[in-house]
Batch of 3 targets.
Target 1
Amino acid sequence: MRRIWQASMIGLARSSAMKSFMQNSRATSFLRNKYVAGETVTAGAERAVALLEKNGIRSSLFFMGEYVDDPALIAETVQQKHDAAEAIAQRQLDIHISVDPTQIGYVISPQQTQGHALKLAKEIKRLAEESQGIHCLMFDMEDASLNDPTIALHNTLQDQGLPVALTLQAYMRRTMEDMEKQVQRGSRVRLVKGAFAAGPKLAFQGTTEIKHNSRQLIELMFSKTAKSKGFYPIIATHDTNLHDFAIQVARKNGWSKEEYEFEMLLGVREDIAQNLALQGERVRLYVPFGRDWWPHAVRRIGENPRNAVLLTRSLFS
Ligand code: FDA
C-alpha cells in the first residue's frame, strides 16, 4: 500500500504538465509557503539565519530541482548552489548544501556531475577555511538506480579530502552493508527512511520493517566502532520514537551531543525540531528554495496523506 501510494506521488512529481499546472495555481500556494523558504538564495539564507537566531536550529540549503535534463537549468542549478554556499558563509552559518546528483547533470552525463560536485565541494572547503561549523556538500539519495553512482561520487570526493556527506535510506535492503562501509570510512551519513519506491527484492515494503531496519542502522551508526572511526551520525526523520531510540543508544555508547545531529524538513513538524533543540540536541532543517517546488511538495504529500486532503479541498473550493 505504502509503495503504491509513494509510486503515485513519484509519478506526479515527474509529470511536467502537472508540475506546470500546480506551480502556477494559486490554490496550491499553501504547499509552497509551507515547505519552501522562498524563490531566491537570499530568502533561503535569511530563513537559515532566522532559524538559528530564534531556535538555535542549523540549516542545509537546497536549491530545488530533480532529474534535470536541460543544460541551461543544470548550469543555473550549479550556480545557485555556489551562490547559496557564499550567502551562508557571509552570514557565518554552517556551509551546508544539499544536492541531488540528477539536478547537476547526471541525466546527461555522469562525468559532468562529478565535475560540478568536485567544484562545489572545493568551494565549500575554501569558504570553510576560516570558520567554525559543520560544513559539507550533502548528497541526497534518489531512486535505486542512483545508489551506486551516488555512493561512488561521495567516496571519490571524500578520498580527495573534501567535505562531503551521504544520505542512505532505511527502506533499501542493501543499506546495512552500505552503512557498514561508511562506518569504516568514518563518514558523515544522514539516515532517512526513503521517499522513493522500489520492489520487494530491493526494498522493505512495510512501515514496521522499515522502522525495524532504521533501529538496526541507528545501533550501527552509534556503535563503539563508529565512534572510534570518527563517524558522524545524522538522524533525519520526524519520527519521535526513532529520536528517542537514537538518544538512548547514543547515551549508552558514550556519544556526546556534539558528535551527532538530527535533521528535519522545513515546514514538517517544526515543533519536534524545537523540542529537540531545547533539550540541547544539535538540530538542522533542510531548507529548500527556488521556483521548482512541486516535486518537493508532492513528496511531502506522499509522506502525509492529510496533505492530499488539504490539496484536494483547496483545488475544488
Ligand atoms: P514518518 O513518515 O515516519 O512520520 C513521522 C511523523 O511525522 C508522523 O507523525 C507524520 O505524520 C509526520 N510527518 C511526516 N511527514 C510529514 C509531512 N510531510 N507533513 C506533516 N507531517 C509529517 N528521502 C530520500 O529518499 N532521499 C533523501 O535524500 C532524503 N533526504 C531527506 C532529508 C531530510 C533532512 C529529511 C528529514 C528527510 C529526507 N528524505 C529523503 C525523506 C525521507 O525519506 C522520508 O520520506 C520523510 O522524512 C518521512 O519519513 P519520516 O521518518 O520523517 O516520518
Target 2
Amino acid sequence: MRTRALVALAVMTIPHQGFAQPATAERPNVVMIYCDDMGYGDLGCFGATAYATPNLDRMAAEGARFTDFYVSSAVCSASRSALMTGCYHERVGIRGALGPKSKVGLAHSETTMAEMFRSAGYATGMAGKWHLGARPSQAPIRHGFDEFLGLPYSGDMWPHHPERPKDYPDLPLIEGDRPAVADVTADVQKSLTTRFAARAVDFIRRKKDGPFFFYLAPNMPHVPLFVRDENAGKSGAGAYGDVIREIDEAVGSILVTLRDEGLDDRTLVVFSSDNGPWLSYGDHGGSAGPLREGKGTSYEGGVRVPFLARWPGRIPAGLVQRQPAATIDLLPTFAAIVGARPPIAAIDGLDVRPLLFGEPDARSPHDALFFYYADGQLQAMRSGPWKLLFPHTTRTMQGQAPGRGGVPGKYRDLPVGLELYDLGADVGESRNLAPERPEVVARLQQSADAMRARLGDRLAGREPAEARPAETATD
Ligand code: MG
C-alpha cells in the first residue's frame, strides 16, 4: 500500500513525461556567479599572472574549467537575457544594454531560470546586477526570485559617468522592487561586491536545508571600478587587479560557507562572465588573453568567457573541457539535473551534462553557436573548430590611444569581411582562411541560413519567424 501511495505521489510530482524527478537528496543546490565584463584572460587559471585568484583557481582544480564557453552576445542585457532564458537574446527580443530610462524588459511570458528552479521546489535568491528591466514590475522578484538585492542596471549609468553625467538619473540600490538606497554614491559602490557576496552567504545559511538556487551577479569588474578601502592597492596590479582580487575573495566566502554548512557535495557552483573586457578603458578594463578584441565585438574576445563549475563527487576534479558550450545551455542542463520541467516555449540551449560531468568522448550537442549583435545582426558563428564572421562593421582599439584611470579611449570602426578562422590552430583569429576553404564557408553558410530563417538577420535582410518580443512596462 505504502509503495503504491509513493508511486502515485511520484507520478503526481513528475511534471513532464520523460522527466523523472531525482530524489531530493540527489538534487543539488545551485550557486551561479556571473561577473560583468570579466575577460577570458582575467583569472589565474585562464592565464592571468599580474595578480592571484586563489579561490577561483581552487574552483578549477576541484571542478571543471571550460576553455570554449560562450555568451549569446558581447553586451550586458542581451547576454543576461540568454543566461536567464536558455534562449539566444534575439529569440527573446533583448538587445544591447538597457538604459535607466528604458521601459523595455524581459517578457513575463518567458520562463526564467529562477522560475524553472522554483517549479522544482527550490528557494530562489539573487544579489547583484539584473539589467533585464529597470521598472518595479520588471524586478527579479517578478521573474521567479524570492528575494533580490542589487542594481537594476550597470554601475556606470549614474550621474558620475566620465563622459555623459547628464544622461543618467541617480542610481538606486534595490531591495525587492523598492530602492534601499536612492542615490548610490562612490562609498556605496565600494561596498557592493562584498555586500552582494554577504547576501549570498546569508541566503545559503538561511536556506541550508535546501534545495536552493542563488544567482550572484557582481557588477564588477565593469567600470567604474570600486573595492572596499582596505582592499585598495592589495593586488599589486592596479585598480583592476584589486577588483578581481575582491571578486576572488567573494567567491572564497561562498566556498567557505558551503564547506562550513556541510553543503559541499550537495552544491553545484558555477562561475562565468557576461561578455569580454571593455578594452577602451585600458588599465580599467580586463584582458581577453590570447583572444582577439573584446566587449562589443563578435570576435572571440567579445563572446568567449571564463567558465568554471564545481560539484565535488559529481564533476571530476581538474576536468578541462574543450568542447564548445554556452550560457544558453545552463537552463536546460540545470533543469535536467534537478528534474524540472523545461520551458514550454522553444529555447536554443541544450543539455550539456555529459560535458559537465566529463563523460569520455562527450561531444558538444551544438552543430553551431551563433552570435548576434547590435540591431539583430548575425555577425558570427562557431562550428567545430571553425569560426565564421559575416561582413559587418565592428570596433577596435588597435592604433588608438588607450583609456586611463577610468576615462575611456576612443574606438575606431573596423570593417569585418567574410572571415573564416580555424580556432584549433589560430585562437587569436589572425589568419583568414575563407579564400582557401570555400567548402567550409559554404557548409557554415547553410547552417547560418537556417538560423536566419528562425531568428532573422539585419545584415542579410531576413525577418525572424520565431522571435518573441520583449515587454514594455506600463509602470
Ligand atoms: Mg557586461
Target 3
Amino acid sequence: MSTKTIAVLTSGGDAPGMNAAVRAVVRGGISYGMQVYGVRRGYNGLLNGDVVQMNLRSVSDIIHHGGTTLYTARSPEFNTPEGVQKAANQCRALGIDGVVVIGGDGSFRGARDLTHAGIPCIGVPGTIDNDIACTEYTVGFDTAMNTAMEMVDRLRDTTESHDRCSVVEVMGRRCGDIALNTGIAVGATAILVPEVPYDFDRDVIQRMKFTQKTGKRHFIIIVAEGVGHTAELAKKIEEATGIESRATILGHVQRGGSPTLRDRVMASRMGFHAVELLDQGIGNRVVAFRESKVVDFDITEALEMKRVFDKDLYDVALRISI
Ligand code: F6P
C-alpha cells in the first residue's frame, strides 16, 4: 500500500537549502497525489501537534531563502522512548503515515526510532558540516563554504594591508571538510583539521617561515572548529614568528544566507527522492549522494558507517599553499 499522507520537518542546526528540500517534498508529494503536512520546529512539532497542511503555494518563494521556514529545534523530549511513542501516536492521530526528516545524524537517529515505532521515515542530509558518512554531500555545505571563502577574502584585505597573520576558525563540528575546502580556496598557508594530527612548529610555524623567506608578508591559517583553540593559536603564532596575529571565529554567519545553486539543486533532488521512497511504501532510509547519483541507505547501516576524510586533497593543499 502506498503512503497517502506524509509530513516533512527540519531538525537540528539549520542549513541553507533546507527550504528547497521542503519545497521538493511538498510539491513532489502533491505530484504523487499525497497530502503533505509541514511540521514546525522539528520533532517538537510532532509532539505538540504543531502541524500545518501544505499546498503548492505554501512553498512559493522560499527556494532562495536561507534558514528553514518550518523552523528547527533539538528536542530532548523526543529523545526518550516515551517521546518517540508519543510522536508516533500523534502521527497516527493525524493520519500521517510517513515522515521526511531533513537534518543530520542526530535527526536520523530520531527517524530510525520513529520508523521502529511504526511510522516510516526517510532522512535527507541537511547540515553545513558535510559530516554524514553515507553521503558525499550534505545540503548546506556548498553555501557555507562559499560564505566562509567570501569572509576570508574580506579578511585578507586587512590582513595584507597590515602584514599580519589571520587565524580563522570555520565551523564543521568534528569534521574538517569546510576547513579543507575553504583553506584551498583562499590559499591558506596552513589548514588544521581534526582528522589529521598536527605539529605546531612543523605544520604552522615552519611553513610560515619558509613562505616568509620567499617574500610572503601576510598569512591566512584556517582552523576547523573541531581543532579549536583559535585565539590561543594566534597568540602562539605571534610569539613564535613576531608577526602580528589576529583570531577570527566566523561562527553562525556560515549557516545563513541564500543557498547556492548547488545546494538548491541537491536539496531538490534529495527531497524528491525521499518522496519517491515513501510512495513505494519504503521507510527507514537515508537519501545520499554517491558517485554523482542520488541513492539511499538503511538508516541503521548509514549511522554505523565511518566517514573517510579526503587525505589526498589535504596533501594537495599542503603542496600548493606555500
Ligand atoms: O551542525 C552544524 C553546526 O553549525 C556545527 O558546525 C556547529 O558545531 C554547531 O552546529 C553549532 O550548533 P549551535 O547552533 O547549537 O550553536
